[in-house]
Amino acid sequence: MHIESHAVPTTLNPLGAKGAGEAGTVGALPVVINAVMNALAPLGVRDLDMPATSERVWQAIQAARATQ
Question: Tell me: the pLDDT tens digits for 9-65?
Fold first, then answer.
């Protein structure tokens, strides 16, 4: 196996730097919101707008209770 690095600086900023670490965080938000939805499902919550603030979670719970 042979590993190489080929640097291609960007001209969009003075450092010539590009992002590299973001790919590992792409799945974090869907995982968290799915966990929140799984926790709220037994309460009847079927939809929650993001960001899932405490106020939005509370409103979603209250709305679900009102329709039961």
Answer: 889 989 888 877 777 777 888 999 999 999 999 999 999 999 999 999 999 999 999
> CB-based burial of residue 64 (10 Å sphere; 0-12 exposed, 13-18 middle, 19+ buried)?
middle
CA distances from 41 to 7, 17, 24, 61, 68 (A): 47, 43, 28, 10, 13
What DSSP character marks residue 49? P
Q: Is the pTM of this model over 0.70?
A: no
- What is the spatial distance between Cα 39 and Cα 45, in angstroms, rounded to a whole number? 9
**Structure-derived torsion over alpha carbons of residues 50, 55, 56, 57, reported in degrees to the nearest 10:** 110
